[in-house]
Structure formats: C-alpha cells, structure tokens
Amino acid sequence: MKNVLVLNGSPRENGNTKKLSEAFITRCIQRGFDVKKYNIPNMNIDECNDCGRCFEEDKPCIIEDDFNLIAEDLVKSDVIVFCLPVYFYSIPGKFKMFIDRLMCFQEGNKNISDKLFAIISCCEDKDMSNFDGVRVPLERLGRDFGWILLDEILAPGMARKGDIENTDGIRRAKELADKIV
Ligand SMILES: Cc1cc2nc3c(=O)[nH]c(=O)nc-3n(C[C@H](O)[C@H](O)[C@H](O)COP(=O)(O)O)c2cc1C
Predict the structure, then answer these.
(1) Is 124 a pocket residue for ligand 1 (Cβ < 6 Å)?
(2) Rounded distance, CA 114 to CA 132, Å?
(3) Measured distance CA(101)–CA(16) in Å, rounded
(4) pLDDT at 19
C-alpha cells in the first residue's frame, strides 16, 4: 500500500488548485492508497532561521510549530504531491516557508530518497513560463533529495474559482493518481 502525502499551498477555499488536489486524492483513495493531506496556509509554520540545530532533541526541527508533524508524514510517504498556485511568478509565501524548513533533512544528513513526487499548479496567465518560479525550485528540491518526478499538472488561465472545470485538469489529476505504481 502506498502512502501519499498531499501538501496544499493555496489559501483560497474551493479554488482551482484544491479542486485538482481533491480529484487526485479521490482517485488515490479509490486505488486503496493511504492519503495524508495538509493545508499549509492554515497551519502554524514559522520560517527557517538557519539555527543549525536540525535533528537536535531527536526531531527534525527545534521550532515548536506544526512542521515536525508534517515532516513525520513526509518521511513515511512514498509519494509527495505539491499543490500550489503561482503568486507573483513564484511559490506562495507560507508554502515557501514550509519548503525552507525541509533544509533540516539536508543539514541533518538524513536520507529521504526513494520517493516519487509531483507538482499540481494553477496560474491566471496563459503563458506557461509563469510556472517556472514554482516548477524549477520544486524540481530541483526533488532532485536534491533523490526523488523521482512522476508528473506535473500545470493549469494556466485559472482566474476565477471553478475555471478548472472547463479544462481537462480534473481528468489529468486523476490520471496522475493512476501513474503511481
Ligand atoms: C497574490 C497573487 C499573485 C498572483 N500572481 C500570479 C502570477 O504571477 N501569474 C499568474 O499567472 N497568476 C497569478 N495569480 C493568479 C493565481 O495564480 C490564479 O488565480 C490561481 O488559479 C489561483 O489558484 P487557486 O484557484 O487555487 O486559488 C496571482 C494571484 C494572487 C492572489
């Protein structure tokens, strides 16, 4: 049985990114996978302050917030799916704070390889280069950790809630779940 970790970075309720992640999750559950989902914007996550005390006290980070909870599930996961909109050509602030906290695994020399990962992202513009600031850092992060990129579902032209319904995004999100073997 696969452990799938879904990390939502969109603060917008019922937005396009969430619709895609929900379609993905539904299909994962149909396939019998164990899915854990976190809505990062609703969580108590501080920024990495480069204190250099990673994995002291037998936990990834010494900051007392929700990060260690997610980190525990990340270690257990076989598949990690980053779901986030493009905010000013980049990763939304709170999600970036979460990403920076993953530094503890590098600093602590912890091997968390042998995972698949995927990116689900939405932006308003039709120009696919808007995704570069989301896609490139996450692709490189995955490479640094030794993860294999399963796929990317990038949905341009998403301005209003529900726009994703008029695209093939939902189908592609379900197909992403079908690619997990
Ligand atoms: C603060 C902010 C910055 C944004 N910056 C961009 C951008 O740089 N490029 C773009 O194409 N869309 C941008 N958008 C639009 C969102 O990426 C788009 O509406 C997306 O569908 C939002 O995802 P959601 O429906 O899951 O909330 C921005 C939206 C917000 C609120």
Answers:
(1) yes
(2) 25
(3) 26
(4) 98
How far apart CA 44 and CA 119 sit, in angstroms, is 23
Share of the chain above pLDDT 70, in %: 100
Pairing of strands 79-85, 34-39: unpaired
- The predicted-structure confidence for 50-101, as pLDDT tens digits, reads as follows 999 999 988 999 999 999 999 999 999 999 999 999 999 999 999 999 999 9
Distance 92 CA to ligand 1 centre (A): 9
Domains in the chain: ranges and CATH: 3-178 (3.40.50.360)
CA of residue 15 to ligand 1 center, whole Å: 10
Summarize pLDDT for 115-149 with one digit per residue, the tens. 999 999 999 999 999 999 999 999 999 999 999 99
Do 60 and 108 contact (CB within 8 A), yes or no?
yes
28 contacts: CB under 8 Å, gap ≥ 6: 2, 4, 35, 177, 180
